Amino acid sequence: MEFLSAILGLVPCLYDYTSKHTVYIRDLKKNLQALNKEMNALNNLYEDVKARVEREEQRQMMRTNQVGGWIREVEDMVKEVEGILQRGDQEIQKRCLQGCCPRNCRSSYKIGKEVSEKLVAVSDIIGKGHFDVVAETLPRPLVDELPMEETVGSELTYDKISMCLKDPQVGIIGLYGMGGVGKTTLLKKINNDFLTASSDFDVVIWVVVSKPSDVGKIQQVIWNKLQIPFDIWENRRIKEEKAVEILRVLKTKKFLILMDDIWERLDLLEIGIPLPDAQNKSKIVFTTRSQDVCYRMKAQKKIEVTCLLPKAAWTLFQKEVGEETLKSHPHIPRLAMTVTRECNGLPLALVTLGRAMAGENDPSNWDKVIQDLTKFPAEISGMEDELFHRLKVSYDRLSDDVIKSCFTFCSLFSKDWETSNDRLVELWIGEGFLGEVHDIHEARNQGHKIIKRLKHACLLESCGSKEVRVRMHDVIHDMTLWLYGECGKKKNKILVYNDVSRLEEAQEIQELEETEKMSVWDRNVQMFPETMLCPNLKTLIVMTCNNLKKFPSGFFQFMPLIRVLNLSDNNNLVELPSEIGKVVTLRYLNLSHTKIRELPNELKNLKNLMILLMNGMISLQVIPQGVISSLTSLKLFDLYGGVKISGVAETLLEELESLKNISEISITISNALSFNKLKNSHKLQRCMSHLLIYRWLDVISLELSSSILKRMEHMQRLCIYRCYNLKDVKIEMQGEGTQNDLTLPNKMTLREKYFLTLSEINVGDCHYLLDLTWLVHAPCLELLHVRNCQSMEEVICDEDEDEAYEMKGKRDIFSRIKHLRLQNLPRLKSIYRHPLLFPSLETVKVCKCNSLRSLPFDSHTSINNLRKIKGETSWWNQLEWSDETVKHSFTPYFKIYEAEAN
User: Fold this and answer.
1) Cβ neighbour number for residue 50 with a 10 Å cutoff
2) What are the beta bridge partners of residue 101?
3) β-strands 172-176, 283-288: how paired?
4) Do 826 and 790 meet the contact criterion of CB atoms below 8 Å apart?
């Protein structure tokens, strides 16, 4: 019966088999084999195409939409065909009569039809899979992410930059600062913040410029970011043609270009970068180690990147050294803070030392590192390669050997020591760095230009609001000592000692034989070694040794080459050994602010001495006659503030006048004989630089002629102190009328002929002095300090009200003044009765001037440079103003005077 049922079941199938659809059933096996073969071909083609795509994507290309769609279609087809092939094989296995007859014709027909259709579809996909191009250039994102570590302590500077990026009036922003201070890190933060922050810039471009700058390489980076077609770019053979193409594209975009590590001016148009302005709203931000570059790049905003504050410095050091190390011993956090302080906030130093000390769990090793930091920091792991060599780049970029010698000399000062710009230049002159000095004033100008260049290179730092002093950052100081010692090979060539015991140790092991420069700063030392064998020593500085009273008699005996000897600021030094007369190579001698009472007669043997500084020697009583006149090479003499020898000042002036090479004199005058000697000597007038008129008790009127003022062409500072009976200072206009005929407007007309170099005036304890109207003859005055003048009512007095009316158009009195200080002037009512422009004014300090009810300010008075007005709150509140707008303009600058604040 079963066999009969099977035969009967074949009847409809045989019918179907002979119909036009039976081909799906009949050819199922053959089609399955063909589909398998096509799928193998498709898989091979898929792998080839996919491999091509992956190669292109590794080159930052992007697969085309057509290729991407084809790959997805293949992957979908593979899944579908796998199921069909599996079901087709199962259907073949179920057939009877050796696979000829299906058990279920309907099922077999359905599978057969699917296989046939997929065979056509696979063939079609294979036909579409032959691509000439599988990928195209990937559209660049707005900004490319740059690798960087988390920033620490730079929030305020970053906020300044962010404000500038939003300011339509600021197109070019210069970030400057010393090496290792974090300029590049800040610039990277600006770049990476655009990954997440919304921006209306069309493109952000990062360019590392470095040195020497290469316009072609910069253009290549910009081309790559702008995705200018390769064929177009390659057809631009020269940089001028490439610049045209870059300019064409950038003019259509609002761009931000971040340029790192610029060392010299870049011509933006030569590169092809259009200048940012308020119309295109584009921006350029660059970093540099030189403030000069900011000016040459015409940066509208110059932002100094400074070292970290102590709290941020400690945070960064902790981050680098690691919590595990800091917790490994209870002494290590304290030692780590000492190391942090030695870095003085320089991020690169903090990172370098932090990484060097990571994992160092032994406190004794931390002690050794602290000792090395004060003696030989280059021996600490990483300091030489990762820190000093990177900082040395700034030194290498200095333009000539003169500037380099001047710079390395600064490492002779103790860390954190601030030195006067003038005193530093004088030391350079003494060293011979500035060449053969024929004109001391030209040499000074050259020296001040070098200081400016070193400050702009961020190798020296300004100190104080007046910027008349400089210092060297601690890490730069260490690097410079390493440099002078031939990058650590001869570390004894220059020695800076804070402990004289180290000097004795060095002498015992003959370390001093190669020493060329040495400085000693030991506040506790009372005595130096009897002798010092220093055959190559050229410079010796002994300063702030406050317990030192004298040097051993043979101390200078074995220093045959010494040129510069600075013994200043040793407050208890009372004697200079007579053997100093044997140091005939001396060019520079500084005894300032010591208590030496008498100069040795042997000093007259120093025929090569060019500079003799004795300012502030209040104990000096005797200068042997003939000593000064014997110093035939002397060019600069300074006895400013030496008051005990006033009785022989006129003799001293005569000796100075006799010197052939003298060109700069600073001195104290306390009587009529000395003053008349000055008035009668054209040479002394031409040489006068700093003049102190002190305790001239019988002077009532101080008279100077216009011809004298003309000859005082190098006068910089004038101080009048404790002339208790002085009532007025008169300027007699020889050949131009008399003082009485000279109205204030006429003075204004004539004043620019006189006191052209006078920049500082100090007047104090002159109780009968009524005014300082003669100051109109000092058009370049920068600092005015008046104190304890009980009768003074006006600084500049209007002698005639009608003439004063005409003066309203002549508002350039005090046009150069930067610092104005008025103290304890109880009757002072007016600085000047009419408003002044004060275009250079930076600071005003008023203390105990209760009668001063107004300042010469109005809406035209400049606040461009103004930083603060200090005074008592009660005085400020009682000031009268021309209108409320002026008051509101100046109120933000008011600061409470310290005595009141405390």
Assistant:
1) 16
2) 96
3) parallel
4) yes
